[in-house]
Amino acid sequence: MPILKRLYLHLQTVRKHRKEVRKNCFACGLYTQGLLHDLSKYSLQELIPSIRYFQGYRSPYAYEKQLYGFSYGWLHHKGKNKHHFEYWVDVIHGEWTPIEMPYRYIVESVCDRVAACKIYQKDAYTKESSLEYFLQGGAKELMAPNTAKTLEDLLRLIATVGEDEAFAYIKKTIKNKKDNY
Questions:
Q1: What gap in Å lies between CA 181 and CA 63, rounded to an integer?
Q2: Is the pTM of this model over 0.85?
Q3: In this structure, what are the phi and psi dihedrals at residue 179, rounded to the nearest 5 degrees?
Q4: Could you tell me where the beta strands, DSSP code E, fall in 50-128?
Q5: Of 131, 83, 117, which Cα lies nearest the Cα of 103?
Q6: What is the Cα–Cα distance from 27 to 53, expressed in whole angstroms?
Q7: CA 87 to chain centre
Q8: What is the pLDDT of residues 100-157, one digit of tens each?
Q9: Cα–Cα distance between 136 and 105 in angstroms, integer?
Q10: Residue 98 near residue 142, CB atoms below 8 Å
């Protein structure tokens, strides 16, 4: 596929994804996070590999990882965006240790996961899609325990009652969560 076509299609994917995340975040009461979500995707560190490895049906980072075992774009992205659990890992006493994520970033992660599944799965998307992707991915074992439990609980809520009801519940409860970040 020619580079200009990949550029155009990638930017369309990012635009659609950000629009869906914004809608989800707004429904949860996260207005600023909805507006600022994934702006790093427009940086050259992320844009260049995303165009180079664009396929349209999955993240370009997944393809780059498949080819080389890692992704420069992903390394930048997860280091700039607090809604990724990988951002919340640090070396403590000489060991890599997951840190509990603040609730509002867990919620943004939920919004992001739902949007990503919708964008890449298209008509195959169901309210269970995000939970299924989370459970099959193995990320749960790499997260701080309460982060993993909260994320899974929220994804299960969506799988059970649907996005509208789940996001309305989150919007009511998020006001009571006091995060330091």
A1: 32
A2: yes
A3: -105, 155
A4: 89-92, 95-98
A5: 83
A6: 32
A7: 12
A8: 999 999 999 999 999 999 999 999 999 999 999 999 988 999 999 999 999 999 999 9
A9: 21
A10: yes
